[in-house]
Amino acid sequence: MSEGTGPAQRVAIGISFGNSYSSIAYTTGEGKAEVIANEDGDRQIPSILSYVDGEELHGGQAKSQIVRNAKNTVAYFRDFLGQEFKSIDPTAAHQSAHAVQHESTVAFKIRDTEEEKENEVTVSTITSRLLKRLRQSASDYLGKQVTAAVITVPTNFSDAQKDALNKAAKEAGIEVLQFINEPVAAVLAYDARPDAKLADKIIVVADLGGTRSDVAVIASRGGIYTILATVHDYEVTGLKLDQVLMDYFAKEFLKKNKSATDPREDTRGLAKLKLECEAVKKALSIGSSANFSVESLVGGIDYTATINRTRYDLLGNKLFAAFSRLVLHAVEKAKLDPLDVTEIILAGGNAHTPKVASTVGAAFPETTTVIAPSTNPAAINPSELPVRGAAIQASLIEEFDVEDIEQSTHPMVTVTPHLSQAIGVLCISGDESSGVFHPIVDAETSLPVRRTAIIATPREGGDVLIKLAEGSRHIKVTKPEPKPKKEKAEDDSDDSDEDESDEEEELREKTWKVGKILSEAAIRGVKKGGKVEVQINIGADLGVNAIYREVGGKGGVRGIIQGGKAANGSA
Amino acid sequence: MATVQVSLPLPVLPEGWTAEKDFKPIGSLSAANDRNIEPVGHHFLAHARRKRHKRTFSEDDRIQAQANVKKVEDEDDGEISEPEDPLMLQREAKDWKGQDHYAVLGITKYRWRATEDQIKKAHRKKVLKHHPDKKAAKGGTEDDQFFKCIQKATEVLLDPVKRRQFDSVDEAADVEPPSKKDTQKGNFYKLWGKVFEAEGRFSTNQPVPKLGNDKSSKEDVENFYNFWYNFNSWRTFEYLDEDVPDDNENRDQKRHVERKNQNARRKKKTEDTIRLRKLVDDALALDERIKKFRQAEHAQKNKRRLEKEAEQKRLAEEAEKAKAEEARLQAEKEAAEKAEKADSKKAKEAAKNAAKKNKRVIRAAVKDANYFHASGDAPASQIDAALNDADAVIVKLDNEQIAALTAKLNGKKDAAAITQVFKDEVKSLVAAGKAQEGELKSLS
């Protein structure tokens, strides 16, 4: 089934296969991505399989088995796939079945049959079983057998891991059309909305997941995406947030029940605590307070408590700050300034937490928009971003032959020259020193590119000069004048905090510095109030083909600037 | 592509600025960085298309636009381009049963594949052309016979039940099975594939498996023929029924006709099943793949048999070899034992001989030593005692010691030296506790 299906009968979905949760989505006839709920009604399906007397449980049902049947429950295994045993970090899977070495790969010792015997099941078999369940859920929902999928992977997934995932998918009867990077899928999910406008943007996708955090800086130029930098972190995670809550509740519990044992030291107590803390965390993303309630937490004692969001924000403050540092670090790594960042897309389940959005937002200037449910009501559910992107990509390439897809994703096609400097026109004055540079094509735009700009002319019309130039972005830092209030502040101790922050505040502005002048052209006799249209075609060989004409006018001026050098390698 | 709007005005052209064609290139772009773009989104697909076909933006725009336009045109002229047979235009509407509804609507190239939408479109086109009012306007007669044919055809084809009945007997859609001669030219799959595709339209189970080609797997081929031998057809022959007379005529007559129709249908259905069975039989007989698989199976079986035989032979050989080896080992062992026995016998004898010789030497030495008598001829008692003692010494010594003693005595003629040797020997015997002091008087 996995082989012979031609593009015609293919039914393709998007799959986001995460360490903690997976999800599946398809694209409707109108081109809208819809996330599919499984039989339990979950759109976020825990990536967990559990075996009870040979019966396979999946998703939420499997997750609740962590308390009762931890030994035969496999969780948090995505990152083990295609890895050697010595290079994995099995901490996350400690609460469930432990990872063991199987030849050089990873396996789990579980009782997955009715027999009283433990089998060593490799992680690829587990993955294949999980994908089979996902495929089944999607097939049941769509009423058609799903045969193909686009699967999202983290940007640092190695080829070996992709191969292993591909194999596992094939075993589950899924033909993998393409692997796409999670952050890019998230961007695609936003850009594929019907009301989305095409603009040149620098987007930061910050994914605060369960077992890892990934930040990617992406240049979006006319719908073409280029990853400029990525940062991965396995310390700042959602599980750590759970841990913070667990510690808090465990301490509160011990305060109330002096004689009781620490629930964190009891396996079942720990599992119960963990499950409830995750639920509390989710509840706090929506409401301002949440109830914690576990029956028989440890030693038969029931425990109920309430926590409000402020408390949670305080508890998690360290992690939130670390996360926003991580985002800033990624921007730095891309050799950009926070001012360059147009948008920050928060992804991953923990992006629901309002404090995450506000902390990250505070680290960036006001020109940067943070897209998260708490800041923008139109935001897409951050947990669903990658899978939606995958579903959209799946619908785009569904009809292509596999070979066609392979050829299109070949480095021959994907490696392209990118502009190192922005190109624009000089406005107001022809002189480089006093002219105002206005970019038409931004830096990091992939070539070839075609852009059009419409530029105003002097009020009275007449002859105008159009100068094309390269420009580079500079950050102008101006320190505000030391305020006279400052002296006063010293005796006013109450104000000292405020003043300190005042002191650090600098005015940062994005300015353009005119670089090399590329060409000059003249349009004569522009009508009063007329506008000039400039179209720039830049080829992969760095040759520029410019067309200038008055809007609504005939004729116009054409000019060619020869490519400085032959294109580097890629034609 | 988005257009950048710049609200700041352009500078005024300075006095005296001139250039050829009003354009003056000055610099060139800085070097570009090579980066990987993400293969995602439809803008990327457009990029990939341009890059792979080496098109520029405007070329790509034009080609894409043309491709889109062509699609629409194809659909359109597909339905109107069929020429109308002048004989068909002469048809009377009352013998509608005899007409080919698809031909009337001009969709013979689709036939049973035609979708409802296509039928509706075709009907509309035909109506526009053949409406009686139009004919009247052209100055023709009020002939609406063909128009009625069109209406009838649409009525049949848009009613799923009636359409099935018509499709069941639509002979124009049948593909005649090729002759044996034709298939031997090597185009079996092409010719029979069409036949089965046409027959497949009657299947209640869709999709119908494809005939495939000479590379199809055994499973596929078996699946295919199983499907056709268990074919479940919806084909009915009601369309060919004789007209049932109206109620007001003879009731018996009506029943008679109905019964006749029923029988005719049943008979045709049976005939059809037989026909299909024969068709599949023919195809199966001509199918090279079946032969191939049988050969392969045969070869497999033979191979297994041969392997078994070889295995047995090998085992027998091995057993034989093992036997021979064992026999050889046994023989070797026996020979070795025999040799050993002989050797030990010889050695014993040699030892005995040597001992005898040594004893002789010792006794001779005793004699040489003048029976340990100081001087002159020894008295008989002394000789006896000396010889007895020498014998006692010999008895107390083992063979090697005797040999050693012999070696010491050999070549010694001097009586004193010999006596000394004996005395030493006795001493060492005493020291070893083998003899008692004074036991060997003559030598002490």
From TrEMBL, chain A:
Residues 475-489 have a biased composition (Basic and acidic residues). The keyword Endoplasmic reticulum does not apply. GO terms for molecular function: ATP binding; ATP-dependent protein folding chaperone. This is Uncharacterized protein. Keywords: ATP-binding, Nucleotide-binding. InterPro entries: ATPase_NBD, Hsp_70_fam. One of its GO terms (cellular component) is cytosol. It comes from the Eukaryota. Residues 490-506 have a biased composition (Acidic residues). It comes from Periconia digitata. Residues 475-510 are annotated as: Disordered.
UniProtKB/TrEMBL annotation, chain B:
Its main location: cytoplasm. Residues 296-351 have a biased composition (Basic and acidic residues). The keyword Chaperone applies. GO terms for cellular component: cytosol. The keyword Chaperone applies. It comes from the Eukaryota. Residues 253-268 have a biased composition (Basic residues). GO terms for molecular function: Hsp70 protein binding; ribosome binding. It is found in: Cytoplasm. InterPro entries: DnaJ_domain, DnaJ_domain_CS, J_dom_sf, RAC_head, RAC_head_sf, ZUO1-like_ZHD, Zuotin/DnaJC2, Zuotin_N. Pfam families: DnaJ, RAC_head, ZUO1-like_ZHD, Zuotin_N. This is J domain-containing protein. It comes from Periconia digitata.
